[in-house]
């Protein structure tokens, strides 16, 4: 493992240098590659490297999704890609999207995979198994951790928006009591960003498809870094998201940038879309900060 500067510093410096809150997600899907690479699993690296080369001055982070590589037995190409990012965009941090979550002993291995094997600067994690499943990652205090809080997918509401209820054992009726209307994702926000955040390295994942819930997260965790997917292919509302998030966020876009064109011009099209989105985010940040009721 080579020593890396703290994720938070790298992210903030890249954001400032490139005037960007945009994170490009690297989710390579060979069936969507342009000819002659279409359906060729040996081209994951070439495709993603071309995207990185075209966007390195427009982003504050890259987020490779491990499943796209592992499903094809192509973790070697992921290692190659991270090495390439280090070379052509040395100040841009890599967030490995793996959404890990398991008992402590297994989590230790996942932490080694992310931070030693792949030498990622940050990782996405599931909070579902509780503190001891997150603790092994805290042993890498300079790396960032983004804990799933309110996810962007439709099924995110199946569990995450449930109100927490305490069973009141002392009650003669055995009735349950609501815990002040706290929702499950708000408890996750509080635990991950405050109670579990021993070294100040924890952030939260909050989807742009639910800006009202981002506002609720901010009420609990006003300072936490937010990784926000859901803009672009998933149809999230950029203006409402930026207003709700109130700074200290990265907005991820994967498919809308990677596959802006499926022709020979895919590199130019990806660059155009990344620049358009970076500028649109900046415009919304400006509009939010100059709105009459801005904080
Ligand atoms: O953790 C994530 O990155 C993530 C969380 C979430 O709630 N929703 C979500 O879409 N993601 C990831 O963000 C990316 C979104 O991709 P696009 O919809 O193509 O921009 C994918 O890699 C997802 O796995």
From TrEMBL:
One biological-process term from Gene Ontology? 'de novo' pyrimidine nucleobase biosynthetic process
Q: Which UniProt keywords apply?
A: Decarboxylase, Lyase, Pyrimidine biosynthesis
From the UniProt record, give the pathway where this protein acts.
Answer: Pyrimidine metabolism; UMP biosynthesis via de novo pathway; UMP from orotate: step 2/2
Identify the domain of life: Bacteria
One Pfam entry name: OMPdecase
- Which residues are in the Orotidine 5'-phosphate decarboxylase domain? 21-270
Q: Which InterPro entries match?
A: Aldolase_TIM, OMPdecase_AS, OMPdecase_type-2, OMPdeCOase_dom, RibuloseP-bd_barrel
Q: Which GO terms describe its molecular function?
A: orotidine-5'-phosphate decarboxylase activity
Give the residues annotated as active site: 99
Q: Which CDD domains match?
A: OMP_decarboxylase_like
Q: What is its EC number?
A: 4.1.1.23
What reactions does this protein catalyze?
Answer: orotidine 5'-phosphate + H(+) = UMP + CO2
The top EC class, named as a word, is lyase
| Annotated transmembrane regions | none
Q: Per the similarity annotation, which family is this? A: Belongs to the OMP decarboxylase family. Type 2 subfamily.
Q: Which PANTHER family match?
A: OROTIDINE 5'-PHOSPHATE DECARBOXYLASE
Q: What is the name of this protein?
A: Orotidine 5'-phosphate decarboxylase
Q: Which organism is it from?
A: Thiomonas arsenitoxydans (strain DSM 22701 / CIP 110005 / 3As)
Q: Which gene encodes it?
A: pyrF
């Amino acid at each position: 493992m080579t020593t890396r500067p703290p994720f938070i510093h790298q992210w903030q410096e890249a954001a400032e240098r490139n005037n960007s809150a945009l994170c490009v997600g690297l989710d390579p899907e060979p069936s969507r590659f342009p000819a002659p690479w279409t359906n060729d699993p040996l081209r994951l690296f070439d495709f993603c490297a071309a995207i990185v080369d075209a966007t390195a001055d427009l982003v504050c982070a890259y987020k490779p999704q491990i499943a796209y590589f592992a499903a094809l037995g192509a973790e070697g190409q992921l290692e190659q890609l991270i090495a390439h990012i280090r070379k052509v965009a040395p100040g841009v941090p890599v967030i490995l999207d793996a959404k890990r979550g398991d008992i402590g002993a297994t989590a230790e291995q996942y932490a080694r995979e992310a931070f030693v094997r792949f030498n990622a600067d940050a990782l996405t994690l599931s909070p579902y198994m509780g503190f001891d499943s997150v603790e092994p990652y805290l042993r890498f205090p300079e790396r960032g951790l983004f804990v799933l809080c309110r996810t962007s997918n439709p099924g995110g509401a199946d569990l995450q928006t449930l109100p927490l209820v305490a069973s009141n054992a002392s009650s003669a009726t055995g009735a349950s009591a609501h815990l002040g209307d706290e929702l499950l994702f708000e408890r996750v926000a509080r635990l991950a960003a405050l109670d579990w955040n021993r070294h100040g390295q924890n952030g939260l994942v909050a989807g742009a498809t639910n800006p009202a819930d981002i506002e609720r997260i901010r009420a609990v965790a006003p300072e936490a870094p937010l990784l926000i997917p859901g803009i672009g292919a998933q149809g999230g509302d950029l203006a409402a998201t930026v207003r709700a998030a109130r700074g200290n966020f990265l907005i991820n876009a994967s498919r809308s940038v990677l596959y802006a064109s499926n022709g020979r011009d895919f590199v130019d099209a990806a660059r155009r879309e990344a620049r358009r989105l970076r500028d649109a985010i900046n415009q919304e940040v400006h509009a939010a900060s100059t709105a009459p009721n801005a904080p």
